[in-house]
Amino acid sequence: QVQLVESGGGLVQPGGSLRLSCAVSGNSISMYTMAWFRQAREKQREFVAMFTSGGYRNYADSVKGRFTISRDNAKNTVYLQMNSLKPEDTAVYYCKAVYGREYWGQGTQVTVAS
C-alpha cells in the first residue's frame, strides 16, 4: 500500500518562503511521476508542479520562477520549495504519485497572510 504524507505547511507572510515535503512509503518512488496540486477554498484542485522519473519538470504559469519541485529518491521524498509567496497561493497542497495507478496524500494547509 503506497502512502503519501505531506508536511511543512503553515502560516507565512506575503513574500515569505515555505518548503513542503511529501514522504512516500510502500514503494520506491524512483519510477513514479511525482506532482504537487493545490485546492483553495471553494475552488477546484489545480496543478502546481510535476517531476517525472526521467527528470522532466513542469510548472503552472502562476508559480513559475517562484516554486521549485525536487525529489530525493534515496529518501523517497519529494519537495516543493515555495518562494515569494502571495496571498493567492493560500490553499491545501496535495502530493500525487503516478505509476500506472495514482496515489494522493491528505494535504497540508498553506496560508499566506499578513
DSSP strand content = over 45%
Low-confidence spans: pLDDT under 50, at least 5 residues?
none
Helix tally equals 0
* Element-by-element helix/strand order: EEEEEEEEEEE
The total of beta strands comes to 11
- State the separation between the terminal residues, measured CA to CA: 40 Å
Mean pLDDT: 97
Shape: globular
Radius of gyration: 13 Å
Helical residue percent band:
under 10%
Structural class call reads mainly beta
Q: Main β-sheet, in a few words? A: 7 strands, mixed
Spell out the blueprint of helices and strands.
Layout: E1 3-7, E2 10-12, E3 18-25, E4 33-39, E5 46-51, E6 57-59, E7 67-72, E8 77-82, E9 91-99, E10 101-104, E11 108-112
Parallel strand pairs: 2-11
Antiparallel strand pairs: 1-3, 3-8, 4-5, 4-9, 5-6, 7-8, 9-10, 9-11
Short account of what is shown:
The protein is an all-beta fold and 114 residues long.
Characterise the protein shown here.
The model has no long low-confidence stretch (mean pLDDT 97). 31% of the residues are buried. It is globular and about 40 Å long. With 114 residues, the protein is mostly beta strands. The strands form 2 sheets. Strands 2, 4, 5, 6, 9, 10 and 11 form a 7-stranded mixed β-sheet that branches. The chain has a 4-stranded antiparallel β-sheet with strand order 1-3-8-7, with no helix packed on it. The protein has no helices and 11 strands. β7 and β8 form a beta hairpin.
Features:
single chain, 114 residues, mainly beta, seven-stranded mixed β-sheet, four-stranded antiparallel β-sheet, 11 strands
